[in-house]
Amino acid sequence: MQARALGKLLKGMLCHVNVIPLNPTSGFDGQPTHRHGVEMFQQTLAEFGVRCCVSLPVHGAVAVSLFCAVFRIVELYACVVTRMRCC
Fold it and tell me: Does residue 61 share a domain with residue 51?
């Protein structure tokens, strides 16, 4: 259902979706995403012409490093955009 809604929203747009399967952590009572569900999500998006890829789950220090890298990229982007508005 969510894949169809996303597919309808993005249909015709030049975009790419990065699918990140749920990776339960301590304190989370949910279940991990099953491979079949991920494949169906990806297939549904493809039916709408939306390109996507599936990221592998990461754990521990690797996850922290990736989070820090993404946060730094967002921080740098915000700085550039802010400077462009001021000039």
Answer: no
On average, the pLDDT of the chain sits at 77
Give the alpha-carbon dihedral of 12, 47, 42, 40, to 10 degrees.
150
Q: Do residues 74 and 84 share a domain?
A: yes
Q: pLDDT tens for residues 54-75?
A: 887 655 555 556 666 666 676 7
What is the mean predicted confidence (pLDDT) over 1-29?
85
**Model pTM?**
0.60
Identify the domain containing residue 34 by its residue range: 1-56
Q: State how many domains the chain has.
A: 2
CB-based burial label for 54 (10 Å; 0-12, 13-18, 19+): middle
Would you state the structure tokens that stand for residue 18, as one six-digit string?
């990065």
